[in-house]
Design a protein that fits this description.
390 residues, mainly alpha, two-stranded antiparallel sheet
Length: 390
């Protein structure tokens, strides 16, 4: 029955978000919450940026119907969702300082963690076993939730990217939560389905060319919800996949965030300073359209999410016994997922850029030596400071 509940919740959240997104766009125009074209964004014209309100409405409606009723955890989670949506909507309208945005994220996370008990006291590590935290897991849970919020916010730079990635991730988390059958699997599974449905409903209006953006109100909300799902649906169980699944399913935003933050620190920039060095920016600079960029990112996300789901649903081992046929299949799926990731991160992002950039330099500056071209291209790849290649 809970599977049907998740499906109905998904469909209602999707329908509500799809129907209410145009209304959210009208509100954005009325209050002046408009995203303007900028160097670090790919918007070509002013676009309303309060789509997160429609996403929240879809989550609230479906969550109120199908998430466990009379449950303080449900109420705390939805209250935290309301807080982060409000903070994001204010930021979309008047642009809050980084500190105020961080405080809003922390407030939403604290509601879920302290009031709702969305935290863990330990995890199960592969080949190690259960590991109990020496201190209460509340602080780690708050840090985790704030981190996921910012990671989803970081990838929200191309039409449809964040909404599509969160749709795929939400579906994967819903399947795994129900399969793990943990203490809060029903709540987590339905919340994941609701998150995926609301994101998909919004995506109908956000795919390129987007008529509305989700803004910080939507990106932070989706990150918050996925963060809650990972804790309630996987980390609270004793299965080894409890730690592996979130890292694999959320690998795209994890890698993107790690990449840009490491680069900012390397060049002594503030980690929270916005720039145009995210994966989607760099793919745009090597000549990919927004739709092609998003298609590759969707495929990458789906590949990793499918591997995480397969690890749970394919009966390749039980306790200490491994079944040869299924184990070979899992190994093959792992190789495909790893190869796809390497291809997208390294071959497309680095090799193609270097080839195209060297070609452009030879055409624009024919007197430049091959050695000088090689040195210049290498520097541009390392710093991320280069012109668009054609």
């Amino acid at each position: 029955m809970r599977y049907w509940d998740a499906l109905f919740a998904f469909l209602v959240a999707m329908a509500a978000a799809a129907l209410l997104t145009p209304l959210a766009a009208m509100v954005a125009r009325r209050v002046g919450a408009m995203a303007k074209p900028s160097d670090r964004g790919l918007a070509e014209e002013e676009t309303p940026a309060l789509g997160g309100l429609a996403i929240f409405a879809g989550v609230l409606l479906a969550g109120a119907i199908w998430m466990p009723g009379n449950h303080h955890v449900t109420r705390a989670i939805l209250a935290g969702a309301a807080v982060i949506t409000l903070v994001g909507a204010i930021d979309d309208t008047v642009e809050l300082s980084p500190l105020l945005k961080l405080l809003g994220q922390v407030a939403a996370a604290v509601l879920a963690v302290v009031v709702g008990g969305v935290k863990v006291s330990g995890v199960t590590l592969p080949f190690v076993g259960a590991l109990q935290f020496p201190v209460d897991g509340g602080l780690l849970a708050v840090i985790w939730l704030v981190g996921i919020m910012n990671m989803v916010n970081f990838i929200d730079g191309v039409d449809g990217l964040a909404a599509g990635v969160c749709t795929i991730d939400g579906i994967a988390f819903a399947i795994i939560a129900f399969e793990l059958r943990g203490p809060s699997s029903t709540l987590a599974g339905i919340l994941a389905a609701v998150t995926a449905g609301a994101a998909l409903g919004f995506l109908f209006h956000n795919f390129h060319p987007a008529s509305v953006f989700m803004g910080d109100s939507g990106a932070n909300l989706l990150g918050y919800l996925l963060g809650v799902v990972t804790i309630e649906g996987t980390l609270k169980t004793n299965a080894v996949i409890a730690l592996i699944a979130p890292l694999v399913i959320l690998a795209v935003p994890f890698l993107d965030t790690g990449f840009v933050v490491a680069k900012r620190l390397k060049y002594r920039r503030k980690p929270w300073t916005a720039d145009a060095n995210h994966f989607h920016h760099r793919m745009a600079r090597i000549g990919y359209s927004q739709r092609k960029t998003v298609a590759y990112m969707y495929a990458w996300t789906a590949l990793l999410a499918s591997f995480a789901v397969a690890e749970r649903v394919i009966p390749w081992h039980r306790h200490q016994n491994y079944y040869v046929g299924w184990t070979i299949l899992m190994a093959a799926l792992g190789v495909v997922a790893l190869a796809g990731s390497i291809y997208l991160v390294y071959v497309l992002e680095i090799f193609k850029f270097k080839r195209l950039r060297a070609r452009d330099l030879r055409r624009e500056e024919p007197d430049t030596s091959e050695h000088e071209i090689e040195v210049r291209v290498r520097r541009e790849v390392e710093t991320g400071e280069f012109e668009t290649v054609g």
